[in-house]
Amino acid sequence: MAGSLIGAVRCGAASDPPPRASISYVTPDTEYRQGDNRLWGVGRNIDVDVATRELRRRRRTWIGEAWDSNVGKKLAVALTGIVLVGYVVLHMIGNLTALLGAGEAATGGAQIDDYGHWLREFGTPLLPAETFLWAVRIFLLASLVVHVVGVYQLTMRNRAARPAGFPAKRIGRSWSARTMRLTGPLLLAFIVFHILHFTLLAVDVTPLAHGEIYSNVYGAFQKWYFVVLYLAAVAALGYHLRHGVWSLFQTLGLDTPARNAYLRHGSTALAVFVVVGFWMVPISFATGALPEPVTGPNAPTEVSK
Amino acid sequence: MNFQLEIWRQDSRDAPGHFETKHVEDVDPEASFLEMLDTLNEDLVAKGGRTVAFDSDCREGICGTCALTINGMPHGPNQVTTCQTYMRDFEDGSTITVEPFRNNAFPAVRDLAVDRSALDRIIQAGGYVSVTTGPQPDPNSQPVTPEVHQTVMDAAICIGCGACVAACPNGAAMLFTGAKVTHLNNLPQGQPERDERSRNMVLQMDEEGFGGCTNYGECARVCPQDIGIDVIGMLNREYRRSSRTKKKTHPKKMVAQ
Prior knowledge:
Chain A is mainly α. Chain A has helices spanning 2-11, 29-32, 46-59, 62-68, 70-95, 111-120, 131-161, 175-178, 180-199, 213-220, 224-251, 260-286.
């Protein structure tokens, strides 16, 4: 309506007074202005607002709309969380092959070395070596990126939603829920370190060699600081999972009053299971429960024997 | 009873606010928190000062108009509305901090009064049902089981006070919107707009600038109507459902070959 009035005036004589009538269609700033952080601007014509909002809403695809909304973005975080939790559990079970010991030099060393070899060769001869491994790595990296970017954007929106300097009183959020934004970045830093350490073999404080997993891990966990670092990182993971696993069920809308107790206790149980499983390896090496490697750079030489 | 009040004073929306210390003396322990503020205002009027602005209406806990954050807790120490909070709930001689409901989607009006019409606009976006004026269907063709009825009534009891928003560290309105979606999407009357409702209410919620849910569950701890976070699960579920539903498009015209 406002547009048509302005159009009519423009067609009229130049000496006509300015179109005061069109002002009546514009709601005064003070009435419509509701919040500082509204996406749709302030003090604008309500009819135009609704029209542009409709246009903007229609322009988006369903996935774009979901990603733009807080609920949909959290859904993406939950779905990628499932991928990451699934990987963590498989990784933990795979690590337990270290507990099978150093093996015999004649049969090619530790079981975990064979397991690592099997992972790299998975899919051969159908696929070239390491193809499957790289597919999984890329999938995991993509999930991690979506998880981190989603959480970062949500955190920024959440900060913007409350006035600065007036944080809400803590009235019953759990310790693990409260520390999610602390354990998250810590875990991200640890993942980078962990890949540099045992995958890229870049942190060669102790002797490392490609393919000699048992020897590499044995060497690293003879140093107390690596043991402490890994135990702490896994503890952070446990806290992250205790809230995160239950939270993803709630975000997916799968939690109901009838299931709530099972899901919450199940998440805690999963967190404990993962933490204990991961802790077994560094503790076993540090306490000397596992033998020295028979192959690799940390194997005792004839001279040292 | 005597109290020292630290009251938030703010002249207008854009003016900077500050805490002001007020003393109230000889307060009846059976007086409600709002009655105590009324007495304070009468004193202020007698002395020629500006009264403390705050919202209230029914004063019997059913309208959801009163909205004070008392000692950091929306609606005060008990899980009831501000008007149902009594001075006997506070320690004699203590200092009580009184703030408005804090959220950037709730702009300040004056002092303790905030504009919560953002919640009204969320209701506008999807809180309606289509009613036919023609012949009505047989009621038995649209049964509502006692379980559904209970779920719906537990959500429909929301009075829209906004305490959940004020309690949320992320400034989210998920409990409020979840209650509306649970209320209408479970009933047969709400089915025609079911997916549209979830989508539009979530869109409106985001556009108002509310934050996102991190499942702390603190909203449910201050809700005077004791609405649980199961409504948030329902909202998540309904939004997931609606984002999957394809919009109806006209089929392509067939051509001969």
